[in-house]
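During the no-cost extension, the postdoctoral fellow (Dr. R.K.) reprocessed legacy sequence entries with the updated structure-token encoder. One reprocessed record is reproduced below for audit purposes.
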Amino acid sequence: MHQPWQPLAGIRILDFSVLLPGPFATAILGDLGADIIKVEPPAGDFARRMPEALFRVANRNKRNIALDLKNADSAAVVARLAKWADVAFETFRPGVAGRLGIGYTQLSALNPRIVYCALTGYGQSGPWRDAPGHDLNYLAAAGALMFSGHWLGKPQRSGLPVADIAGGAFAAIAMLSALLERDRTGRGAELDLSLFEAALFATAARHGLDLERDGRAHMYPTNDVFDTQDGQRIALGIVEPHFWENFREAVKEYDHRLGDPKFADEPLRRANGDELSRLIAGVFQQKTLEQWLAHFAGHDVPVQPLVTALAGSQCAQAVAREAVTEIDGERLMAFPVFANGRRGAAVRSVTRTAIGGDSAAILGELGFSASETAALRDSGVVKFG
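Re-encoded structure tokens follow.
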């Protein structure tokens, strides 16, 4: 097996984050070779009690230590972790990290070269800084939920936590940028990102910031999901005119009305979108999903069946691209990049199930003696898995 692309080998990340956005960010960096120590409270990351795959997937390639930051004696461990790290990352509400002794002021005093990143709901400043929230709230506040995903029907949320995933990805980009700057200047940085702004940034990229009209103004009636005769669903991805012409030619025998001049160009297809959407729906009702996929073969029409994540990960394209890694019986997907013509990032280890499963090894690496380690265990500062 070829050696994976690990450009971040040697970069050390101290990860205080929980749930999805933060661990997703550091999972990307871990896939690319970074050495990550995840610090969990003695009760563990709450994600451990959520749907099982979430915690395992977002915390691969990480070691974990369970540390009671509310215990003042944890300061000795935090000090050594801060000196060990290139990056410290947290997702607490504003002010909490400082009260726990892991804020930027405290850690940068211990390590002036440290890159410190805080990813919060609404940011470290502003009137909403202390407001609670989750992905749905950030999307709503950013205007993202005003846009429908279908030509007919009301706007609905995505099944994917878009703000969480975007926010985590943006945090990873910001941390890498700060590391690059540090290599030039020798100075660390304090980074402040928010999930609300991640959602607003994504909305702006797709719709701009001045759209105050029809929530489907960004949609195409020809770019939608339709039911087939056998109750399956198919995604029709037509935006460009040539794809419309290819589709119309492929299905002309099933409904001649699609050739009506009122559907001749995109402005007309939008103006008559409700009717067109229903006509296309009627066409797809005339064959099963498999029949339609066979029918469109060779017509250069962008169609895909709606499948489960399992089916998607097992399809011929995913197999050809070596998208899925199996390690210790776990099927995972590393950060999706090819480097120099080969699959790049790698899952090197799966998440330990025990809270504090690496505590002893990490304390030893940090230079704590056996007696000091025993004292930390006996006092409850550190939990051992």
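Residues 162-185 form the longest helix (24 residues). The chain has two domains: 12-208+322-383, 233-305. The remaining legacy entries will be reprocessed before the final report is submitted.
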